[in-house]
Amino acid sequence: MPVYTLTVNGEERVVDAPADMPLLYVLRDLLGITGPKYGCGVGICGACTSHIGNNVARPCIVPVQSIGAQPVTTIEGLANGGVLHPVQQAWIDEDVAQCGFCQPGQIMTAVRLLEQHSNPTDAQIDAAMSENVCRCGTYVRIRAAIKRAAAASGSR
């Protein structure tokens, strides 16, 4: 089996995995990183959403062999020294989660949105978040949390 050296959440990790093994399985099963959730397995629901390099990605459909030297960030990698990322804090403040299953993917998508648009409009939020499914329907609170995080980030 091939050996891969991955940078995950700022830490170099070495794994033995089949080349075509989806990154999600590497993260969850081989590295014990369980924030990204298995939802659909075909890249549609967004529960596994993570960052690969500068891109939002669905690790359930990304083979480990395609990662190369790109860093991988999961929800576990957002907090800095125990301080929650502004998006994570906004999610708590807005009481977004109901079941919570989709929230890691929602948060990772929102983080990238705010990196691209520091004060997004409702239309930008809706467009960016449209491919992340929340079965509980907390979309109004998700939008409110993104606006709260944008305001908190802007005041720094």
TrEMBL record:
Which keywords appear in this protein's UniProt record, sorted alphabetically? Answer: 2Fe-2S, Iron, Iron-sulfur, Metal-binding, Oxidoreductase
Domain spans labelled 2Fe-2S ferredoxin-type? 2-78
Which Gene3D superfamilies does the entry link to? 3.10.20.30, [2Fe-2S]-binding domain
Q: Which GO terms describe its molecular function?
A: 2 iron, 2 sulfur cluster binding; metal ion binding; oxidoreductase activity
Q: Which residues form a coiled coil?
A: none
Question: Does the keyword section mention Lyase?
Answer: no
The lineage's top-level taxon is Bacteria
The answer on whether this UniProt entry bears the keyword Nucleotide-binding reads: no
A Pfam family in this protein?
Fer2_2
PANTHER family reported for this sequence: BLR6218 PROTEIN (PTHR44379:SF2), OXIDOREDUCTASE WITH IRON-SULFUR SUBUNIT (PTHR44379)
Q: What is this protein called?
A: Isoquinoline 1-oxidoreductase subunit alpha
Organism, by scientific name, is Steroidobacter agaridevorans
